[in-house]
Structures are given as C-alpha cells and as structure tokens.
Amino acid sequence: MQGGFADVQFVVPLRHHIITRLHEAREVLKVHAQRAKLYSWTSTILTIGQYIVGAALASSFVQESVSRPAIGSLGLVVLLASAVQQRFRPDSAARSARRCVLQIGQVIRNAEDALVAQDSGQTDAPSPNDIIASLSNGITSLEIVELGDADLGGSGTKAQSTQSAKNQKSKKVNSAQKSIQP
Q1: Beta carbons within 10 angstroms of residue 94's beta carbon
Q2: Which of 68, 119, 125, 153 has the most C-beta neighbours closer than 10 Å?
C-alpha cells in the first residue's frame, strides 16, 4: 500500500493550496464588497451635492435669504461635486465592484461545491488541479478588469468594448485591403 500513501501525501498539499486560494478569493471578495459600498456612498453624496444643493441655489428664496458668500460657497460645492462625478464616475465604479463581487462569489461557490463533491466521493468531481486553476483564473480575471479600470479611469467593460471596436475596425480594413489587391 505504499502507492496509496504517496497519493495521500500528494493530495494534502493540493488541498492546502486550494484552501489558500479560497482564502485569497474571499479577501478579494471582501475588498470588492467594501469598494462597492464606498463607491455607492460616494455617488449618493455627490448626487446630493450636485442636484439638491444645485436646486436649492436655483430657487429665488435661497438667493434672497442667504448671503452672497454662502451662495458662492454652495455654488462651488455643486461645481466640485459635478466635476468629481464626471471625472471619477463613482456610480460606474460601484457597478463594476458589484459585478466583481458576483463573479468572485460564483468562483468561490463553485470551488466549495467541487470540494464537497470530492469529499463525498463523486466520480465526476473536478480534480484538485482543476479547482486550483478555476480559483486562480477567477482571481486573475478580476485583476485584469481592475487593471483596465485603473488605466482608463472607468469601467473595464468600456475598455473591452473599445478594444473590441478597434479589432472589428481593423478586420474590416484588412478584408477591404485584401479585396483590393490583385
């Protein structure tokens, strides 16, 4: 039974590696959940600053009853809120973070289900290497989206759609060039 003992020694480090990846995925989940909450609150506060204060400034009652320096300060608040909202798009960042939470949550659930399938001895259960690869790929795909967000200052889907549009345009140009050539 020495072959069986070697198999057990090999499975334990794989199981430990899976658990390590699950902890890493849960940390990524926690970070994105916190970001989603932060960006959502930021968007709400900026919207209040932009629309509520702006509407109050537009009313003649406020203009007549509040001093000019206070009106000017509130005007700057509206201007600043509008500029931050347009530049950083916290609403879009919140949607992107929530999308990441859903994606990594699905990756974690799939890995946990695969572990349960292995523990129950199901014959069609994914191998430990498949589980590790799934967790690693899920984490990496979120890091790539995050990198796209950082590069563009917007959502990763915008980056992907821009790249897709460039690829389609390039294909059209190439096919047009091929049809022109003798």
Answers
A1: 20
A2: 125
Distance, CA of 172 to CA of 182 (rounded, Å): 18
Q: What is the pLDDT of residues 1-24, one digit of tens each?
A: 444 444 545 556 888 999 999 999
Cα 32 from Cα 88, distance rounded (Å): 17
Q: Please give the backbone phi and psi of residue 179, each rounded to the nearest 5 degrees, phi first.
A: -75, -25
The distance of Cα 66 from the centroid of its chain, to the nearest Å, equals 43
The structure's pTM equals 0.68
Two structure tokens written together for 162:
């821009």
What would the pLDDT profile of 111-149 be if each residue is shown by its tens digit? 999 999 998 989 899 999 999 999 999 999 988 888 877
Per-residue pLDDT reduced to its tens digit, 38-92: 999 999 999 988 888 888 888 887 888 888 898 888 889 899 999 999 999 999 9
What the block records as the tokens of 142 is 């979120």
Alpha helices (H) along the chain: 2-47, 53-58, 60-65, 68-88, 90-119, 128-152, 156-180
Rounded Cα distance between 107 and 136, Å, is: 9
The residues near 85 (Cβ < 8 Å, ≥ 6 apart) are 43, 46, 47, 50, 91
CA angle 102, 106, 109 (to 5 degrees): 135
